[in-house]
Amino acid sequence: MSAPSGPGTDAVGALVSVPSLLDWTRDALAPYGFHEHTALPLVSVCRDELMFGFVDAVTAHWGHAFDLSSLAGLPLMGRTGLAAALGHAPDDDGRHRLVVFAFPHIGADGGIGAVHRPGVPGTTAACGAVAVARTALVSGVSGVVLDPHDIEASLLVQRLRRVLGGADVPDLPAATELVRRVAVEELALLLADLSTPDLVVDWALVSGVVVHLHDVDAVTLSAATVVVDGASTELAPPT
Ligand SMILES: [Zn+2]
User: Fold this and answer.
1) N or C: which end of the chain has fewer CB within 10 A?
2) What is the pTM of this model?
3) Model pLDDT for residues 13-31, shown as the tens digit of each residue
4) 185 C-alpha to ligand 1 centroid (Å)
C-alpha cells in the first residue's frame, strides 16, 4: 500500500491513499458478504466541497452513498435518518448490509489545518467547523444552549464539551480525532439498534481522517469493525 505524506502530517498519523483504503475495504469486507451490490454505503463526512473527492471514491468502489453529512462530519441524522438509509439497502435473501464511512477531515496544505482552494487567495481552514468549535470551547461556551439558527455547530460544541468535561481543549489534530471518536460512538449506538428478529442488518463501520495534502487527499485509518448476526469483528488495518 502506498504511503503518502506531507509537511506536518506526523501530527495526524500514518497515511494511506484514498484508493488504497477503499480497495482494502472491498477486500476485507467481501468475506463477510459485503459487496457493491449487496451493501449500501453511507458517508458521515463534513459538508465541505473538499470532501467530494473522497465521496466520489467511495461511490466508485461501493456505489452511490446515503449522505449522513453535517458540519465537521458529525452524524446528526439520528434513528430516523438511519432508518431511511436502511430502507434503501439491498435485500440479499432477507439480509441487509450497510457500510458506513466516518471520516472527519483536516488540511495539511500550507500548514496543519490549512488548505488552498481554487480562486481563494492564501489558505483557508479545514476543518473550519472544528476550528470554530475549538474557538468556542476555548472561550468557555458550554454547549448547553442550542442556537436554532446554528444547530449543527451548536451540537458539535455540545458533543465535544461533553466528551472533554473540564479537560483542556486539544489542538486541531486532536480535536479532529475527538470528532471521529464521537461520530463512531454515535453511529455504533444507532447501528446496533437496527436489527430485529424480522430484519437482519449486518453493518461495517470504517473510520479515520481525510487529510488534504497539496492537490491530493490521503487518509488515516483508525478503526474498522464489521458486525454480522450481531457478532462484532475488528478488522486488522492494512500494513
Ligand atoms: Zn469541514
Assistant:
1) C
2) 0.95
3) 789 999 999 999 999 999 9
4) 19
